[in-house]
Amino acid sequence: MLLGRVTGTVVATRKDANLTGLRLLLVEELGSELQGTGKFVVAADAVSAGPGEVVLYASGSSARLTEVTKDKPVDAVLVAIVDTIDEDGELRFSK
């Protein structure tokens, strides 16, 4: 899993029928200092994330293992909304 921040939504009116009903979000990958890396991914939303939220996302074949994305043509899926990040006893992030 990777850390990312939701930066926007993706709307596609013409798409594969298997994507119908999936909410697609634009997510920027976060580095170790929780800063954006400039790398973006379009991910299916399985957790009802909102703009600006820090999320965990899975990519590759793992992205097709959630209830929402099973057997769907997706390469990334949001699997969690991050509440806090603690590193070595120090609070690094809090929602």
Can you put this structure into words, describing what you see?
With 95 residues, the protein is an all-beta fold. It has a single domain (2-94), classed as EutN/Ccml (OB fold (Dihydrolipoamide Acetyltransferase, E2P), Beta Barrel), CATH 2.40.50. The chain contains no helices and seven strands. The chain has strands spanning 2-10, 24-30, 36-45, 54-59, 76-81, 84-87, 90-94. A hairpin with a 5-residue loop joins strand 2 (24-30) and strand 3. The protein is elongated, with a radius of gyration of 14 Å.
Strands in their spatial order, largest beta sheet: 1-2-3-5-4
Tell me the Rg in angstroms.
14 Å
Q: Domains counted in the coordinates: how many? A: 1
Helix content: under 10%
Number of helices: 0
CATH architecture identity: Beta Barrel
Give a topology summary:
Elements: E1 2-10, E2 24-30, E3 36-45, E4 54-59, E5 76-81, E6 84-87, E7 90-94
Parallel strand pairs: 3-5
Antiparallel strand pairs: 1-2, 1-4, 2-3, 4-5, 6-7
